[in-house]
Amino acid sequence: MPRSTNNVAAKKRRKKILDSAKGYFGGKSKLYRTAKLAVEKSGLYAYRDRKVRKREFRKLWIVRINAAVRANGLSYSKFINGLAKSNIQLNRKSLAYLAMNDKQAFDKICEQVKSSLAN
């Protein structure tokens, strides 16, 4: 019996890898073996950095809140403690947005926090 190959599936498999390696530098986009390694590695980086992105944004929000709070004479930790005491349930993302874009609203929140810390 003659040997049969599955050329259609093999070509499709290789084409899928090379298509996802499009735009990579040099042989990483042209040669199957190196492209396969590059695509695997980029997939690992993409998976890992989807988690890291969330951490980075949280850090950015905290830095922005801290800068705005210090302008109002508080520290970040005291501000967060005061938010809990005054029962204001805003997350860090929205607080950072207010600190950057709506200074008056953020100042009112700071005043509420200061009054709750004084009590």
Class based on secondary structure composition and strand pairing: mainly alpha
In one word, what is the shape? rod-shaped
Query: What value does the average pLDDT take?
Result: 95
CA-atom Rg in angstroms: 26 Å
Order of helices and strands: HHHHHH
* Beta-strand fraction estimate: under 5%
Q: Fraction of residues in helices?
A: over 70%
Low-confidence stretches: none
Number of strands: 0
Q: What can be said about the biggest beta sheet?
A: none
Q: Give the N-terminus to C-terminus distance in angstroms.
A: 91 Å
* Count, helices: 6
Structural notes for this entry:
- The model has no long low-confidence stretch (mean pLDDT 95).
- The chain is rod-shaped.
- It starts with 6 loop residues before the first helix and ends with a helix.
- It contains 6 helices and no strands.
- It is an all-alpha fold and 119 residues long.
- The longest helix is centred in the middle third of the chain and has 40 residues, at 32-71.
- α3 packs across α5 (92-101).
Walk me through the topology:
Blueprint: H1 7-20, H2 27-30, H3 32-71, H4 76-85, H5 92-101, H6 103-118
Helix pairs in contact: 1-3, 3-5, 4-6, 5-6
